[in-house]
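Agenda item 2: cytidine-5'-monophosphate complex prediction
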Amino acid sequence: MKLFKVAIDGPAGSGKSTIAKEIAKIFNLFYLDSGALYRAFGYYLKKMGFDLNNENDIINALKTFDIKIIKNDYYLFNEKLDFQIRTPEIGKAASIVAKNPNVREKVNQILRNIAKVHSVVIDGRDIGTVVLPDADVKIFLTASIEERAKRRYNELIKKNKKVNFEDVLIEIEKRDKADSTRKIAPLKPAEDAIIVDTTGKNIKEVITEIKNIILKKI
Ligand code: C5P
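Presented output:
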């Protein structure tokens, strides 16, 4: 049977992971969160006391970095990764290590190995452009920066985190800039991606829109 591949890219807070998870359920695809792998690597470096900006530290950490993906769960050695990689601090660390070509190669290898044997939906920044240039469907999700910051803020408040809206907005602005201006695999839509602007739309509406795009390609 031919494998089916869906790429969902977009900036922080565009709703990629929520949407990708639902699309995975609807079409019975393996869901992969590429951002979680960059976060896991950033978390690992910090945990080992390594310097995020030091090439030698990164090379050494890559030699031992051992991540397992079981269903929707990510394990660093035997530690199940969850809330500990979802902090703004680890988001920032992920964005720093994601600039390194060796780190990107490692993450891409993990993702492609799974996509070789499973039908997948992968979310990230460069899935349609670099990781799966041959994806059957490429979606680029966007939303206004205020709306993305509002979503992130609400998510953090729900988790009882003490944050203020301005800080969340500034953090997202910084991450957008870092992700879209970096030299290697910058955040940008693939030429053949379908752009879906989610500003003012609820999750159900976005899922229906994407579901219809995919149904036309099946
Ligand atoms: O999507 P998420 O916010 O979890 O990603 C964390 C960071 O990992 C992003 O800000 C980005 O710098 C990096 N990333 C990337 N390429 C991807 C996915 C994430 O560079 N495909």
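Discussion summary: The chain has a mean pLDDT of 96.
Owner for follow-up: CH.
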